[in-house]
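Q: Is it fine to ask for two folds in a single conversation?
A: Yes, each is treated on its own. Send the first.
Q: Here.
A: Result:
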Amino acid sequence: MKKTNFIATVILFWSLTSVAQESNQTIDPSKPTNLYTQFNTLTELNSYDTFNTYGIRLNFQYAIDTDNLILVELPFLRNDATNETGLSDMRFRYFRAAKRNVSKSIIAIVPFADITAPTGSFSNGLGGDTWSLAVGTVVGIVLNKNISLFPGINYVYLTKPKESGLGFQTNMSIKFSQNSFLFANPIITMFSFDTIWQAEFNYNYIIKPNKIKVNAAYNPNFTNNINTFRIGATFFL
Protein backbone atom coordinates (compact mmCIF):
# COMPACT_ATOMS: atom_id res chain seq x y z
CA MET A 1 0.00 0.00 0.00
CA LYS A 2 2.86 2.39 0.81
CA LYS A 3 4.41 1.74 -2.61
CA THR A 4 1.06 2.35 -4.32
CA ASN A 5 0.58 5.63 -2.46
CA PHE A 6 4.10 6.73 -3.33
CA ILE A 7 3.62 5.97 -7.03
CA ALA A 8 0.31 7.85 -7.05
CA THR A 9 2.00 10.84 -5.38
CA VAL A 10 4.79 10.87 -7.97
CA ILE A 11 2.32 10.73 -10.86
CA LEU A 12 0.17 13.48 -9.31
CA PHE A 13 3.22 15.67 -8.69
CA TRP A 14 4.39 15.20 -12.26
CA SER A 15 0.93 15.96 -13.66
CA LEU A 16 0.62 19.16 -11.63
CA THR A 17 4.10 20.49 -12.32
CA SER A 18 4.53 19.56 -16.00
CA VAL A 19 4.13 22.46 -18.41
CA ALA A 20 3.65 22.29 -22.14
CA GLN A 21 6.64 22.91 -24.39
CA GLU A 22 6.28 26.13 -26.32
CA SER A 23 4.78 25.43 -29.74
CA ASN A 24 7.47 27.52 -31.46
CA GLN A 25 10.33 25.74 -29.71
CA THR A 26 12.33 23.38 -31.89
CA ILE A 27 12.87 20.09 -30.07
CA ASP A 28 15.97 18.10 -30.96
CA PRO A 29 15.93 14.87 -28.91
CA SER A 30 18.93 13.52 -30.85
CA LYS A 31 21.10 15.47 -28.39
CA PRO A 32 20.63 14.06 -24.85
CA THR A 33 22.03 17.26 -23.30
CA ASN A 34 18.87 19.01 -24.51
CA LEU A 35 16.44 18.81 -21.58
CA TYR A 36 12.69 18.54 -22.21
CA THR A 37 9.60 17.68 -20.19
CA GLN A 38 8.42 14.30 -21.47
CA PHE A 39 6.67 11.05 -20.65
CA ASN A 40 8.14 7.75 -21.89
CA THR A 41 6.36 4.41 -21.84
CA LEU A 42 8.31 1.26 -22.75
CA THR A 43 7.58 -2.42 -23.04
CA GLU A 44 10.59 -4.42 -21.88
CA LEU A 45 12.08 -7.90 -21.94
CA ASN A 46 15.19 -8.82 -19.91
CA SER A 47 16.69 -12.17 -20.87
CA TYR A 48 18.95 -13.83 -18.25
CA ASP A 49 20.64 -17.24 -18.37
CA THR A 50 17.87 -19.08 -16.53
CA PHE A 51 14.86 -16.75 -16.49
CA ASN A 52 13.27 -13.68 -18.06
CA THR A 53 11.60 -10.58 -16.71
CA TYR A 54 9.18 -8.56 -18.79
CA GLY A 55 6.70 -5.74 -18.39
CA ILE A 56 6.42 -1.98 -18.72
CA ARG A 57 8.76 0.84 -17.74
CA LEU A 58 7.36 4.35 -17.16
CA ASN A 59 9.76 7.27 -17.31
CA PHE A 60 8.79 10.80 -16.25
CA GLN A 61 11.12 13.71 -17.04
CA TYR A 62 10.37 17.22 -15.82
CA ALA A 63 12.45 20.10 -17.17
CA ILE A 64 12.43 22.73 -14.42
CA ASP A 65 13.97 25.04 -17.03
CA THR A 66 16.26 24.57 -20.03
CA ASP A 67 19.20 23.69 -17.76
CA ASN A 68 17.69 21.53 -15.00
CA LEU A 69 15.81 18.23 -15.27
CA ILE A 70 14.46 15.63 -12.82
CA LEU A 71 13.79 12.03 -13.91
CA VAL A 72 11.73 9.37 -12.14
CA GLU A 73 11.56 5.83 -13.56
CA LEU A 74 9.03 3.19 -12.51
CA PRO A 75 9.46 -0.37 -13.86
CA PHE A 76 6.66 -2.92 -13.40
CA LEU A 77 7.92 -6.41 -14.28
CA ARG A 78 7.04 -10.09 -14.11
CA ASN A 79 9.57 -12.86 -13.44
CA ASP A 80 8.70 -16.01 -15.40
CA ALA A 81 10.69 -18.26 -13.04
CA THR A 82 9.06 -17.10 -9.78
CA ASN A 83 5.72 -16.15 -11.42
CA GLU A 84 5.80 -12.93 -9.41
CA THR A 85 4.75 -9.49 -10.70
CA GLY A 86 5.40 -6.11 -9.15
CA LEU A 87 7.43 -2.92 -8.92
CA SER A 88 11.10 -3.40 -9.78
CA ASP A 89 13.95 -1.07 -8.75
CA MET A 90 13.09 2.61 -9.18
CA ARG A 91 15.49 5.15 -10.61
CA PHE A 92 15.90 8.87 -9.90
CA ARG A 93 18.15 11.21 -11.85
CA TYR A 94 19.01 14.92 -11.81
CA PHE A 95 20.72 16.76 -14.68
CA ARG A 96 22.21 20.25 -14.50
CA ALA A 97 23.54 21.90 -17.67
CA ALA A 98 26.38 23.84 -16.04
CA LYS A 99 27.74 25.23 -19.31
CA ARG A 100 26.30 25.59 -22.79
CA ASN A 101 27.96 26.56 -26.07
CA VAL A 102 31.43 26.42 -24.56
CA SER A 103 32.91 26.45 -28.07
CA LYS A 104 31.79 25.80 -31.62
CA SER A 105 31.98 22.03 -31.09
CA ILE A 106 31.33 21.68 -27.33
CA ILE A 107 27.63 22.37 -26.90
CA ALA A 108 27.15 21.45 -23.22
CA ILE A 109 28.74 20.25 -19.99
CA VAL A 110 26.12 18.46 -17.90
CA PRO A 111 26.82 17.07 -14.39
CA PHE A 112 24.29 14.56 -13.06
CA ALA A 113 23.34 12.48 -10.04
CA ASP A 114 21.81 9.03 -10.55
CA ILE A 115 20.17 6.86 -7.87
CA THR A 116 18.68 3.37 -8.22
CA ALA A 117 16.61 2.34 -5.18
CA PRO A 118 16.03 -1.35 -4.25
CA THR A 119 12.23 -1.11 -4.34
CA GLY A 120 11.83 -4.44 -6.15
CA SER A 121 11.60 -7.70 -4.22
CA PHE A 122 14.91 -9.57 -4.43
CA SER A 123 13.33 -12.86 -3.29
CA ASN A 124 10.74 -12.58 -6.07
CA GLY A 125 13.42 -11.91 -8.67
CA LEU A 126 12.25 -8.34 -9.27
CA GLY A 127 15.09 -6.31 -7.75
CA GLY A 128 18.84 -6.15 -7.23
CA ASP A 129 18.74 -5.65 -3.43
CA THR A 130 21.26 -2.78 -3.54
CA TRP A 131 21.32 0.99 -3.71
CA SER A 132 23.30 2.36 -6.64
CA LEU A 133 24.49 5.94 -6.13
CA ALA A 134 26.33 7.70 -8.96
CA VAL A 135 27.57 11.19 -9.81
CA GLY A 136 29.20 12.20 -13.05
CA THR A 137 29.39 14.53 -16.04
CA VAL A 138 28.48 14.26 -19.72
CA VAL A 139 29.99 16.52 -22.38
CA GLY A 140 28.19 17.23 -25.66
CA ILE A 141 30.49 17.40 -28.69
CA VAL A 142 29.21 18.09 -32.22
CA LEU A 143 31.41 16.55 -34.93
CA ASN A 144 29.20 17.56 -37.86
CA LYS A 145 25.51 18.14 -38.58
CA ASN A 146 24.71 14.41 -38.38
CA ILE A 147 27.10 13.00 -35.75
CA SER A 148 27.54 14.06 -32.12
CA LEU A 149 29.36 12.48 -29.19
CA PHE A 150 28.31 12.56 -25.55
CA PRO A 151 31.19 11.02 -23.59
CA GLY A 152 30.75 10.76 -19.85
CA ILE A 153 32.46 9.65 -16.68
CA ASN A 154 30.87 8.82 -13.34
CA TYR A 155 31.68 7.54 -9.87
CA VAL A 156 29.31 4.83 -8.65
CA TYR A 157 28.81 3.27 -5.21
CA LEU A 158 26.89 0.04 -4.46
CA THR A 159 25.65 -0.52 -0.91
CA LYS A 160 25.81 -4.29 -1.51
CA PRO A 161 28.59 -5.32 -1.67
CA LYS A 162 29.84 -1.89 -0.43
CA GLU A 163 31.90 -1.30 -3.55
CA SER A 164 32.71 1.78 -5.57
CA GLY A 165 33.82 2.06 -9.17
CA LEU A 166 34.27 4.28 -12.19
CA GLY A 167 32.04 4.26 -15.23
CA PHE A 168 32.81 5.48 -18.75
CA GLN A 169 30.58 5.93 -21.79
CA THR A 170 31.02 7.24 -25.34
CA ASN A 171 27.47 7.85 -26.50
CA MET A 172 27.30 8.56 -30.24
CA SER A 173 24.23 10.16 -31.80
CA ILE A 174 23.83 9.52 -35.53
CA LYS A 175 21.11 11.39 -37.43
CA PHE A 176 19.86 9.65 -40.56
CA SER A 177 17.30 12.33 -41.35
CA GLN A 178 15.43 15.14 -39.66
CA ASN A 179 13.12 12.56 -38.04
CA SER A 180 15.33 9.53 -37.35
CA PHE A 181 18.46 8.97 -35.31
CA LEU A 182 20.39 6.29 -33.44
CA PHE A 183 22.21 6.30 -30.09
CA ALA A 184 25.14 3.86 -29.94
CA ASN A 185 26.69 3.80 -26.49
CA PRO A 186 29.45 1.46 -25.21
CA ILE A 187 29.62 1.51 -21.38
CA ILE A 188 32.39 0.26 -19.10
CA THR A 189 32.07 0.20 -15.29
CA MET A 190 35.16 -0.85 -13.35
CA PHE A 191 34.81 -2.25 -9.82
CA SER A 192 37.49 -4.00 -7.79
CA PHE A 193 35.54 -7.29 -8.06
CA ASP A 194 34.78 -7.09 -11.79
CA THR A 195 34.64 -4.93 -14.90
CA ILE A 196 31.16 -4.66 -16.40
CA TRP A 197 30.99 -4.33 -20.19
CA GLN A 198 27.67 -3.10 -21.61
CA ALA A 199 26.23 -1.29 -24.61
CA GLU A 200 23.07 0.55 -25.61
CA PHE A 201 21.64 0.78 -29.13
CA ASN A 202 18.54 2.94 -29.35
CA TYR A 203 16.84 3.80 -32.67
CA ASN A 204 14.35 6.69 -32.59
CA TYR A 205 11.84 7.97 -35.11
CA ILE A 206 9.95 11.26 -34.67
CA ILE A 207 6.33 10.80 -35.76
CA LYS A 208 5.22 14.35 -34.98
CA PRO A 209 7.87 17.01 -34.26
CA ASN A 210 7.66 18.49 -30.76
CA LYS A 211 5.02 15.90 -29.81
CA ILE A 212 5.66 12.17 -30.33
CA LYS A 213 8.53 9.83 -31.16
CA VAL A 214 8.87 6.05 -31.04
CA ASN A 215 11.96 3.98 -30.33
CA ALA A 216 13.38 0.45 -30.28
CA ALA A 217 16.39 -0.45 -28.13
CA TYR A 218 18.77 -3.34 -27.56
CA ASN A 219 20.95 -3.16 -24.44
CA PRO A 220 23.36 -6.09 -23.97
CA ASN A 221 25.32 -6.71 -20.77
CA PHE A 222 28.23 -8.76 -22.08
CA THR A 223 29.77 -9.49 -18.67
CA ASN A 224 26.65 -10.92 -17.04
CA ASN A 225 25.07 -12.28 -20.24
CA ILE A 226 21.89 -10.20 -19.93
CA ASN A 227 20.03 -8.95 -23.00
CA THR A 228 17.42 -6.20 -22.71
CA PHE A 229 14.94 -5.31 -25.47
CA ARG A 230 12.64 -2.28 -25.32
CA ILE A 231 10.00 -0.77 -27.60
CA GLY A 232 8.23 2.42 -26.64
CA ALA A 233 6.98 5.91 -27.27
CA THR A 234 7.85 9.38 -25.99
CA PHE A 235 5.33 12.18 -25.55
CA PHE A 236 6.80 15.69 -25.25
CA LEU A 237 4.73 17.97 -23.02
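Q: Second one now.
A: Result:
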Amino acid sequence: MVNNEVFLQQMQEGLSEIVKPYQRQLDQQQKMAELVNLCLRHAGRDDFIALDELLKTKKAEAVENEESLKGCKEFFDRLRAYANEKVERYRIQFIEDLRARAEEAALPLAVDFPRLSSLKGIEATVDFSQRTSTINKKTLKSIDPRRIVSALLKAKRELYDRPFEAQSFVNGLHQTYKEILKKENLAPGHAVPVQRFYFEYVMSLQSKAFLQDMAKGKFRGYSVDQFGVDIWRYFQSATGGTSEGYALQLRAGRNNSLWLIDSDGEKRQITGISFQKVKS
Protein backbone atom coordinates (compact mmCIF):
# COMPACT_ATOMS: atom_id res chain seq x y z
CA MET A 1 0.00 0.00 0.00
CA VAL A 2 1.37 3.42 -1.00
CA ASN A 3 2.19 5.71 1.90
CA ASN A 4 -0.32 8.58 1.85
CA GLU A 5 2.29 11.19 2.72
CA VAL A 6 4.61 10.06 -0.09
CA PHE A 7 1.69 9.91 -2.55
CA LEU A 8 0.50 13.41 -1.76
CA GLN A 9 4.02 14.82 -1.95
CA GLN A 10 4.44 13.25 -5.41
CA MET A 11 1.14 14.76 -6.55
CA GLN A 12 2.14 18.21 -5.28
CA GLU A 13 5.53 18.10 -6.96
CA GLY A 14 4.03 16.92 -10.26
CA LEU A 15 1.36 19.62 -10.36
CA SER A 16 3.87 22.26 -9.28
CA GLU A 17 6.16 21.44 -12.23
CA ILE A 18 3.23 21.64 -14.66
CA VAL A 19 1.99 25.00 -13.40
CA LYS A 20 5.40 26.73 -13.12
CA PRO A 21 5.71 27.77 -16.81
CA TYR A 22 2.08 28.95 -16.78
CA GLN A 23 2.66 30.95 -13.58
CA ARG A 24 5.82 32.53 -15.02
CA GLN A 25 3.81 33.59 -18.07
CA LEU A 26 1.10 35.08 -15.87
CA ASP A 27 3.69 36.94 -13.79
CA GLN A 28 5.29 38.35 -16.93
CA GLN A 29 1.93 39.47 -18.27
CA GLN A 30 1.09 41.08 -14.94
CA LYS A 31 4.35 43.06 -14.95
CA MET A 32 3.67 44.26 -18.48
CA ALA A 33 0.17 45.34 -17.55
CA GLU A 34 1.56 47.21 -14.53
CA LEU A 35 4.01 49.07 -16.78
CA VAL A 36 1.24 50.16 -19.15
CA ASN A 37 -0.86 51.31 -16.18
CA LEU A 38 2.13 53.22 -14.79
CA CYS A 39 2.54 54.88 -18.18
CA LEU A 40 -1.15 55.86 -18.05
CA ARG A 41 -0.70 57.42 -14.59
CA HIS A 42 2.36 59.42 -15.65
CA ALA A 43 0.54 60.64 -18.77
CA GLY A 44 -2.53 61.55 -16.71
CA ARG A 45 -0.39 63.75 -14.44
CA ASP A 46 1.73 65.02 -17.34
CA ASP A 47 4.77 63.79 -15.39
CA PHE A 48 6.89 64.00 -18.52
CA ILE A 49 10.20 63.29 -16.75
CA ALA A 50 8.95 60.01 -15.28
CA LEU A 51 7.26 59.20 -18.61
CA ASP A 52 10.47 59.87 -20.55
CA GLU A 53 12.50 57.65 -18.21
CA LEU A 54 9.91 54.84 -18.16
CA LEU A 55 9.63 54.64 -21.94
CA LYS A 56 13.41 54.29 -22.30
CA THR A 57 13.54 51.11 -20.21
CA LYS A 58 13.98 47.56 -21.48
CA LYS A 59 10.65 46.72 -19.82
CA ALA A 60 8.88 49.18 -22.12
CA GLU A 61 10.65 47.61 -25.09
CA ALA A 62 9.46 44.17 -23.94
CA VAL A 63 5.86 45.42 -23.87
CA GLU A 64 6.18 46.66 -27.46
CA ASN A 65 7.55 43.29 -28.56
CA GLU A 66 4.76 41.34 -26.86
CA GLU A 67 2.40 40.07 -29.57
CA SER A 68 -0.75 40.59 -27.50
CA LEU A 69 0.30 44.21 -26.73
CA LYS A 70 1.75 45.20 -30.12
CA GLY A 71 -0.73 48.06 -30.36
CA CYS A 72 1.16 49.83 -27.56
CA LYS A 73 4.14 50.66 -29.76
CA GLU A 74 2.40 53.42 -31.70
CA PHE A 75 1.25 55.10 -28.48
CA PHE A 76 4.63 54.61 -26.79
CA ASP A 77 6.46 56.18 -29.75
CA ARG A 78 4.19 59.23 -29.72
CA LEU A 79 4.51 59.60 -25.96
CA ARG A 80 8.31 59.25 -26.21
CA ALA A 81 8.50 62.11 -28.69
CA TYR A 82 6.20 64.25 -26.53
CA ALA A 83 8.08 63.56 -23.28
CA ASN A 84 11.50 64.01 -24.88
CA GLU A 85 10.55 67.43 -26.25
CA LYS A 86 9.18 68.58 -22.89
CA VAL A 87 12.29 67.38 -21.04
CA GLU A 88 14.54 69.32 -23.40
CA ARG A 89 12.47 72.47 -22.84
CA TYR A 90 12.53 71.80 -19.10
CA ARG A 91 16.29 72.55 -18.77
CA ILE A 92 15.65 76.20 -17.86
CA GLN A 93 13.08 75.37 -15.19
CA PHE A 94 15.11 72.43 -13.86
CA ILE A 95 17.52 74.47 -11.74
CA GLU A 96 14.70 76.41 -10.07
CA ASP A 97 12.80 73.20 -9.30
CA LEU A 98 15.96 71.54 -7.96
CA ARG A 99 16.68 74.45 -5.63
CA ALA A 100 13.07 74.49 -4.45
CA ARG A 101 13.16 70.76 -3.64
CA ALA A 102 16.44 71.16 -1.76
CA GLU A 103 15.07 74.11 0.22
CA GLU A 104 11.97 72.09 1.18
CA ALA A 105 14.30 69.36 2.47
CA ALA A 106 16.49 71.91 4.33
CA LEU A 107 19.45 70.65 2.29
CA PRO A 108 22.26 73.10 1.40
CA LEU A 109 22.75 73.05 -2.37
CA ALA A 110 25.04 75.00 -4.70
CA VAL A 111 24.35 74.75 -8.43
CA ASP A 112 26.97 75.33 -11.12
CA PHE A 113 25.16 73.39 -13.80
CA PRO A 114 25.79 70.58 -14.61
CA ARG A 115 27.66 70.29 -11.29
CA LEU A 116 25.94 70.29 -7.91
CA SER A 117 27.40 70.36 -4.41
CA SER A 118 25.95 70.19 -0.93
CA LEU A 119 27.83 69.58 2.33
CA LYS A 120 31.55 68.81 2.05
CA GLY A 121 31.99 65.42 0.43
CA ILE A 122 28.62 65.46 -1.37
CA GLU A 123 28.88 66.24 -5.08
CA ALA A 124 26.76 65.50 -8.13
CA THR A 125 26.58 66.03 -11.87
CA VAL A 126 23.55 66.01 -14.15
CA ASP A 127 23.62 64.68 -17.72
CA PHE A 128 20.44 65.77 -19.48
CA SER A 129 21.30 64.05 -22.76
CA GLN A 130 21.69 60.66 -21.03
CA ARG A 131 18.91 61.36 -18.51
CA THR A 132 21.24 60.41 -15.65
CA SER A 133 22.66 62.00 -12.52
CA THR A 134 25.77 60.99 -10.61
CA ILE A 135 25.86 61.50 -6.84
CA ASN A 136 29.25 60.68 -5.28
CA LYS A 137 30.07 58.36 -8.18
CA LYS A 138 26.77 56.49 -7.87
CA THR A 139 24.67 56.67 -11.03
CA LEU A 140 20.99 57.57 -10.77
CA LYS A 141 19.05 56.89 -13.97
CA SER A 142 16.99 60.02 -13.55
CA ILE A 143 17.06 63.80 -13.83
CA ASP A 144 13.95 64.21 -11.70
CA PRO A 145 14.70 66.88 -9.04
CA ARG A 146 12.73 64.87 -6.48
CA ARG A 147 14.89 61.80 -6.98
CA ILE A 148 18.13 63.81 -7.13
CA VAL A 149 17.38 65.54 -3.81
CA SER A 150 16.35 62.20 -2.32
CA ALA A 151 19.71 60.72 -3.36
CA LEU A 152 21.57 63.74 -1.95
CA LEU A 153 19.70 63.33 1.35
CA LYS A 154 20.65 59.65 1.42
CA ALA A 155 24.32 60.63 0.97
CA LYS A 156 23.95 63.18 3.78
CA ARG A 157 22.52 60.53 6.12
CA GLU A 158 25.35 58.12 5.31
CA LEU A 159 28.08 60.72 5.74
CA TYR A 160 26.84 63.14 8.39
CA ASP A 161 24.00 61.58 10.37
CA ARG A 162 26.38 59.35 12.34
CA PRO A 163 27.71 59.76 15.86
CA PHE A 164 30.96 61.71 15.73
CA GLU A 165 33.23 62.98 18.48
CA ALA A 166 36.35 64.71 17.15
CA GLN A 167 38.65 63.90 20.07
CA SER A 168 37.83 60.20 20.08
CA PHE A 169 38.19 60.10 16.30
CA VAL A 170 41.66 61.63 16.15
CA ASN A 171 42.83 59.56 19.12
CA GLY A 172 41.70 56.44 17.26
CA LEU A 173 43.60 57.50 14.14
CA HIS A 174 46.70 58.15 16.20
CA GLN A 175 46.46 54.72 17.82
CA THR A 176 46.30 53.07 14.39
CA TYR A 177 49.24 55.17 13.25
CA LYS A 178 51.37 54.11 16.24
CA GLU A 179 50.55 50.44 15.66
CA ILE A 180 51.67 50.66 12.03
CA LEU A 181 54.92 52.38 13.06
CA LYS A 182 55.57 49.60 15.55
CA LYS A 183 54.88 46.82 13.02
CA GLU A 184 57.08 48.42 10.39
CA ASN A 185 59.76 49.64 12.82
CA LEU A 186 59.34 53.24 11.63
CA ALA A 187 60.31 56.40 13.48
CA PRO A 188 57.63 58.71 14.94
CA GLY A 189 56.52 61.33 12.43
CA HIS A 190 57.14 59.05 9.43
CA ALA A 191 54.31 59.22 6.86
CA VAL A 192 52.55 55.88 6.30
CA PRO A 193 50.77 54.97 3.03
CA VAL A 194 47.18 56.14 3.22
CA GLN A 195 45.67 53.00 1.71
CA ARG A 196 47.43 50.81 4.27
CA PHE A 197 46.39 53.21 7.03
CA TYR A 198 42.74 53.20 5.92
CA PHE A 199 42.63 49.39 5.89
CA GLU A 200 44.16 49.13 9.36
CA TYR A 201 41.83 51.81 10.73
CA VAL A 202 38.73 50.09 9.33
CA MET A 203 39.86 46.84 10.92
CA SER A 204 40.29 48.64 14.25
CA LEU A 205 36.59 49.54 14.12
CA GLN A 206 35.45 45.92 13.91
CA SER A 207 33.92 44.00 16.77
CA LYS A 208 35.59 41.03 18.45
CA ALA A 209 32.83 38.83 17.03
CA PHE A 210 33.80 39.79 13.48
CA LEU A 211 37.53 39.36 14.08
CA GLN A 212 36.91 35.84 15.37
CA ASP A 213 35.11 34.46 12.32
CA MET A 214 35.15 37.28 9.69
CA ALA A 215 31.44 36.78 9.01
CA LYS A 216 30.26 39.24 6.37
CA GLY A 217 27.11 40.08 8.30
CA LYS A 218 29.17 41.28 11.27
CA PHE A 219 31.42 43.61 9.28
CA ARG A 220 31.09 47.29 10.12
CA GLY A 221 31.29 49.24 6.89
CA TYR A 222 33.23 52.50 6.78
CA SER A 223 33.60 53.99 3.31
CA VAL A 224 36.39 56.23 2.04
CA ASP A 225 33.78 58.99 1.70
CA GLN A 226 32.89 58.62 5.39
CA PHE A 227 36.58 58.65 6.26
CA GLY A 228 37.12 61.85 4.27
CA VAL A 229 34.13 63.61 5.84
CA ASP A 230 35.21 62.59 9.35
CA ILE A 231 38.68 64.03 8.71
CA TRP A 232 37.04 67.25 7.56
CA ARG A 233 34.82 67.37 10.66
CA TYR A 234 37.92 66.83 12.80
CA PHE A 235 39.71 69.73 11.09
CA GLN A 236 36.61 71.89 11.64
CA SER A 237 36.49 71.08 15.35
CA ALA A 238 38.38 72.95 18.06
CA THR A 239 40.16 69.77 19.17
CA GLY A 240 43.61 70.90 18.07
CA GLY A 241 45.18 67.44 18.15
CA THR A 242 45.30 64.16 20.02
CA SER A 243 45.10 63.83 23.78
CA GLU A 244 48.86 63.18 23.70
CA GLY A 245 49.56 66.43 21.84
CA TYR A 246 50.00 65.24 18.24
CA ALA A 247 48.51 66.85 15.12
CA LEU A 248 47.25 64.97 12.08
CA GLN A 249 48.99 65.74 8.79
CA LEU A 250 48.02 64.66 5.26
CA ARG A 251 50.51 64.31 2.42
CA ALA A 252 49.16 65.02 -1.08
CA GLY A 253 50.16 62.97 -4.13
CA ARG A 254 48.80 60.86 -6.96
CA ASN A 255 50.11 57.31 -6.68
CA ASN A 256 48.23 54.87 -4.43
CA SER A 257 46.11 57.71 -3.10
CA LEU A 258 42.64 58.23 -1.64
CA TRP A 259 40.43 61.24 -2.23
CA LEU A 260 40.06 62.93 1.15
CA ILE A 261 39.11 66.43 2.37
CA ASP A 262 41.98 68.53 3.69
CA SER A 263 41.99 71.24 6.37
CA ASP A 264 41.00 73.85 3.75
CA GLY A 265 37.92 71.88 2.81
CA GLU A 266 39.39 70.90 -0.57
CA LYS A 267 39.06 67.38 -1.91
CA ARG A 268 42.58 66.16 -2.69
CA GLN A 269 44.44 62.99 -3.54
CA ILE A 270 46.24 61.96 -0.36
CA THR A 271 49.05 59.42 -0.37
CA GLY A 272 50.31 59.54 3.23
CA ILE A 273 49.23 60.23 6.79
CA SER A 274 51.40 61.13 9.77
CA PHE A 275 51.20 62.64 13.23
CA GLN A 276 53.58 65.36 14.35
CA LYS A 277 54.23 66.53 17.91
CA VAL A 278 52.64 69.92 18.51
CA LYS A 279 55.19 72.44 19.80
CA SER A 280 54.10 73.96 23.10
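Q: Anything structural to flag on that second result?
A: Two points. The chain has ten helices and nine strands. Residues 113 and 126 are 8 Å apart (CA to CA).
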